[in-house]
Amino acid sequence: QGDCGGRECDLLKTEIRDLQEQLKALKATVGKIQKAWIFMNGNSAGEKTFQANGSEGDFETSKATCSQAGGLLASPRNSAENTAIQQIVVRHNKAAYVGINDIETEGSFKYLSGEAIGYSNWAGGEPNNLGTEDCVEIYPDGRWNDRSCNEKRLIICEF
Ligand code: 293
Ligand code: CA
Questions:
Q1: What's the gap in Å between 50 CA and the centre of ligand 2?
Q2: Which partner for 75 in 34, 45, 99, 149 could form a disulfide, CB atoms 3.0-4.6 Å apart?
């Protein structure tokens, strides 16, 4: 600071100040829209927002629907996120797939990224791999059950 002088420099300084003001206003606007959006039909935990539009699908459809929307199938990584997703399940009274599965290696549950899960909220006796259950659904009580990937479930995405 202070090394820059002359007319052009003054102009640049003015432009930077103007941009800083615009950025501040833009952030405030985005924040308001985000709040209104969450109030309408979503939920949030930390930096994540979770949304459902009422549509349903099997695991592959749910995954594809969320990525087409520019998001990810909701993947609870802690209890705050799990509770936020649970509340949407309750609102729609319909269980949902989460972005967790053991398709690759039986008993080794991973996020869609391939990373091993670092948080779980299994229901009592789960996962039991009854028949073959490689996907994970979240119940209205927030607990998880491993389940066939071919059921129809509420689609909840995270953004
Ligand atoms: C068995 C025992 C039930 C359990 C169910 C699910 C299926 O029927 O208590 O809810 O398996 O694990 O995914
Ligand atoms: Ca099960």
A1: 24
A2: 99
Which protein residue has the closest C-alpha to ligand 1 atom 8? 130
Confidence of residue 4 (pLDDT cuts 50, 70, 90): confident
Rounded mean pLDDT, 114-134:
98
Residues near ligand 1 (Cβ within 6 A): 125-126, 128, 130, 133, 145, 147
User: What's the predicted TM-score (pTM) here?
Assistant: 0.89
User: What is the pLDDT averaged over residues 1-23?
Assistant: 91
Contact criterion met (CB below 8 Å) for 44 and 38: yes
Residue 40: band (very low, low, confident or very high) from pLDDT cuts 50, 70, 90 = confident
- Give ipTM to 2 decimals: 0.95
Q: Whose CA is nearest to atom 5 of ligand 1?
A: 130
Distance CA 31, CA 37 (A): 10
Using the mean position of ligand 2's atoms as its centre, give its distance from the Cα of residue 149 in Å: 11
Calculate the average pLDDT of the chain. Answer: 96
